[in-house]
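ingest -> validate -> predict -> emit
validate: passed (alphabet ok, no gaps, 206 aa)
predict: started
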Amino acid sequence: MLKLLLACGCLLLWMSGPVAAESGAPADVAVCAACHGDEAPSPFPSVPTIHGLPQAVLDNALFDFRATIRPCRKPDCGAAADCPDIDFCSIAAALSDEQISALASWYASRRFVAAGEPFDAALAARGAQLHQDKCDSCHTEGGTSSTEQATILRGQRKAYLRLALEDFRQERRVAVAEMDAMIRALSDDELTALVEFYASPRRPKQ
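emit:
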């Protein structure tokens, strides 16, 4: 109950931000923007960009946080950042099904922008082949596009990607059977190569 009250307090605290005032934006966007930013890309290394992701991916993430079946971490926004001192699951606990749907729909309508972090070209080349062999059937077009249930990987922040892959490998997050078996078979070096590939620039469409 205390966590729910804290979450509601955080929602009210950030509702007056600039993104909340945007026409058509759900009021609850403001608490998300505190960590994910008003626009893509995410401003913090271990926080994912959620603008432009598939609605089903966003829906599932929020429902999973609300059910506490994803890691309930506090946002890691850095010492100087104005982030809510509360974990993701407690934030989601305050949201109704309708609020989750509205948030997912709004963020899915936004533009995804790659983080543009430095990357190791040699490792990225190895990661490109790994992605083609093991990941591209769902995370299509080199990880720049997605199916309904598979998220965009290319352009996400490296620290977040590494943490997410480790969460899947350590069973802190649930994956489909094919993905679960694939991630478990990857070495640490292969995970690093994949992360470096996803940090590399997208090729412009011809």
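Residues 1-16 have pLDDT under 50 and may be disordered.
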